Amino acid sequence: MRPRPLDSPWQSWSVAAALVLGGLGCFASGVVWVTRSLFQDIEQELRRNDVHRLVLRTAEATPRVTEQLGTPLTSSFLTLRAHGATARSGVVDFDLTVQGPRGRGVLEAQVAYTPEAWTLRKLVLHPEAGDSVDLPAGGSTPALPPD
Questions:
Q1: Integer Cα distance of 30 and 117 in angstroms
Q2: DSSP H helical ranges for 49-128
Q3: CA 26, CA 20: separation in Å to the nearest integer?
Q4: Confidence of residue 126 (pLDDT cuts 50, 70, 90)
Q5: Does the pTM of the predicted model rise above 0.90?
Q6: For the chain, where are the alpha helices, taking DSSP H only?
Q7: Is the model's pLDDT at 45 over the cut of 60?
Q8: Measuring CA to CA, how many Å separate 110 from each of 19, 24, 70, 91, 121?
């Protein structure tokens, strides 16, 4: 018995499935790319405005941090957790991995920003060894004008 010829490639489920999966893959890749570029822009602004240094200086000025990690503190990774923004202000939550002569930890920070300044609203140290420590917050650094 001879196989019946197909009138159109769309009658083949494998072709249709490949096209659907390919389209979904392209869509997912686009969503990931857009999300990453938004987070990368926020991360660059945090570094350009020295917000990470504000967090490090605030932590180094706290006796409990110097007991556990020592000074000076150095940072390696900045990981964004969340951000919300309007045209005039916003809030950014991020983690900063830090290391001192006595140990390592993660500083969990929340900063608010306006066109004039970045203000530290919350700071928590999560050391590798020991319990989390709430640190005093409230310092600020001037916001640079947009490029």
A1: 33
A2: 51-60, 63-68
A3: 10
A4: very high
A5: no
A6: 13-48, 51-60, 63-68
A7: yes
A8: 43, 35, 23, 7, 6
Whether the bond between 72 and the residue before it is cis, its omega within 30 degrees of 0, is yes
**Which residue shows structure tokens 């590798």?**
128
Distance CA 136, CA 65 (A): 11
Tell whether the model's pLDDT for residue 90 goes beyond 90: no
**By the 8 A CB rule, do 141 and 118 touch?**
yes
Bridge partners, residue 85, by sequence: 90
Please report where in the chains the tokens 């900045």 appear, as a residue. Answer: 78
* pLDDT recorded at residue 133: 87
Q: Do the bridges between strand 74-85 and strand 104-113 make them parallel or antiparallel, or are there none, so unpaired?
A: unpaired
In angstroms, the first-to-last Cα distance of the chain is: 72
SS3 at position 22: helix
Picking from 136, 123, 103, the residue whose alpha carbon sits closest to that of residue 51 is 123
